[in-house]
Amino acid sequence: MAIRPYKDKHPQFGQRCYIDESAVIVGDIQTGDDVSIWPLVAARGDVNHMRIGERTNVQDGTVLHVTRKSAQHPKGYPLIIGDDVTIGHKCMLHGCTLGSRILVGMGAIIMDGAVVEDDVFIGAGCLVPPGKTLKSGYLYVGSPAKQARPINEGERAFLKQSAENYVQLKEDYLAD
């Protein structure tokens, strides 16, 4: 496992987390409990910080990064991810903020300053441009991402269930 500090900032993990041995986790990164980080994830909290909420899963090949402070953006853009978020395979999240109960489809890209509110589906391959806000309760698709339709109650329940499925899966991995 490549878990290492950047300068004086060390990654910190909540209880019962699973971090795959091929993941690279560097710098100012903190997770909540029951987080799972799967093979080949690269997470680099060097020029800003990263926070990952409880029961969130980050799937294979995803890149997580932050944006440095600048004259235009004095605070830069940290990466903030809420609770019960499922981040699909090979996604790119860069200096954005995600609420809770979100599914980010495979290969999606979410850029600097974008905000995704709670209870959102982001379709596979979506591009969420810098500074865009995705409102709660909708499915978004396309490049750039566009609001497709409201999510129904079954889909809303699935957002939480998806995260729970990965909590159970990481428990299997931790037991081996």
Automatic annotation (TrEMBL):
Pfam families: Hexapep_2 (PF14602). SUPFAM superfamilies: Trimeric LpxA-like enzymes (SSF51161). InterPro entries: Hexapep (IPR001451), LbH_gamma_CA-like (IPR047324), Transf_Hexapept/Carb_Anhydrase (IPR050484), Trimer_LpxA-like_sf (IPR011004). CDD domains: LbH_gamma_CA_like (cd04645). PANTHER family: DYNACTIN SUBUNIT P25, PROTEIN YRDA. This is Gamma carbonic anhydrase family protein. It comes from Fluctibacter halophilus.
